[in-house]
Prior knowledge:
Layout lengths: L2 E11 L2 E12 L3 E5 L6 H9 L5 E9 L2 E2 L5 H7 L1 E4 L6 E5 H11 L9 H14 L10 E2 L5 H15 L3 E5 L7 H14 L5 E5 L3 H4 L6 E6 L2 E6 L1 H10 L2 H7 L10
Parallel strand pairs: 3-10, 3-11, 6-9, 9-10
Antiparallel strand pairs: 1-2, 1-4, 4-5, 7-8, 11-12
Helix pairs in contact: 5-6
Amino acid sequence: MSTLVIKDLHVKIEDKEILKGVDLTINTGEIHAIMGPNGTGKSTLASAIMGHPKYEITQGSITLDGEDVLEMEVDERARAGLFLGMQYPSEISGVTNADFMRSAMNARREEGDEISLMKFIRELDNKMEVLDMEQEMAQRYLNEGFSGGEKKRNEILQLMMIKPTIAILDEIDSGLDIDALKVVSDGINQMKSENFGCLIITHYQRLLNYITPDHVHVMMQGRVVKSGGEELSLKLESEGYDWIKVELGIEDETVGQA
């Protein structure tokens, strides 16, 4: 079992504090969901875990199996087993989907143990079929000219090929129609195992109708204010967030970041 531990994490952008003491533990074999109003720091948490230079860690720690994640460069975090499915995936001209994924897979393997081309192609074809993706997308430049839905499927394709230890999926459901949502959810569900843990950031219960979370967390004002099981997300869907604000005495304000 692997474990990602976030303790008392404080993050700022320029002079504005966004995260104000986040505590969270994610084990492999678990699916966690983070929900919360806009502007509470959910996407900031994802970016901080992966080391985006825009976000400054001012206090707290992030460890993966006891190793200090904050001491790692972004590529080292990926090789260590962390993966970020981005809300707005970047387009990279000149690098094909297939080349990108094969390089990412080999970066996590020992020198001399690189995946063979034929094994890679077989696995890629299989995963693309699961995600109902056209085979020609493998040879297109990374996300270039992709629709929003194609970009999200492509993020899940990368997830299934790279097989990280802990994945952070930032609003992977945004912009997806029902059919695409089911396909993307199936891909994530196929990953669930004792060797894989996942943190899903979402605004909507509709994704969690297809992916059953083991733990649900609510973020407000830059910290996790409430945690529970699947029943918590269902209550949020039916009643919104006001009852939590009343229960915890939280003023109706946000920190200005997703």
